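Per-record layout

source: Lentinula detonsa
name: Diaminohydroxyphosphoribosylamino-pyrimidine deaminase
length: 166
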Amino acid sequence: MTFEDQHLKYLQLALEEAKKCTPTPTAFCVGCVLVSRLSAEPLVMSTGYSRELPGNTHAEANALSKFRSLPQEEVCRFDPAASHAEILASADVYTTMEPCSIRTSGLSPCADALIDAHVKRCFIGVGEPDDFVQCEGAQKLVSAGIDVVWLKGLEEESLSVARRGH
Ligand SMILES: Nc1nc(O)c(N)c(N[C@@H]2O[C@H](COP(=O)(O)O)[C@@H](O)[C@H]2O)n1
């Protein structure tokens, strides 16, 4: 399996999450998957999509919240000795759209949430177009020392799913 194939598989999963979003003309439909590589086989830690959790919530923040709310006995399968925070610090993030760096609602941006969680790498389906704001999410992650990988192959689909309802 090539590097791209290995990672596109999880981005495809994130795209399935994005398709679950209720479309809205004022925001994007984004999906996110967190993957742990602490054991021999990669394991999906959690998934999220825009507006999945109550309120005006974003995909990446929802995936982080859902992982943090898993009981310890479920988290054991990623690493029996590690805490939620330690497992998150080794996570790969797959998101169909570049994590947001500014929110029109004034809520905390996803790039900041990923930086605070100290995730390892962020694989992105497509850059955020400037439909609403000028996004600097990828640059923010790089500046914080997080590896950013722009995956090739699902850009068009990621964008058309994101713009559903516009
Ligand atoms: N990366 C990302 N994930 C999501 O789940 C999103 N909905 C977005 N959209 C970005 O956030 C802005 C909307 O901010 P508010 O929800 O209104 O606070 C929108 O302009 C996009 O930048 N991005």
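summary: The beta strands are 31-36, 43-49, 91-97, 121-126, 147-150. The mean pLDDT is 96.
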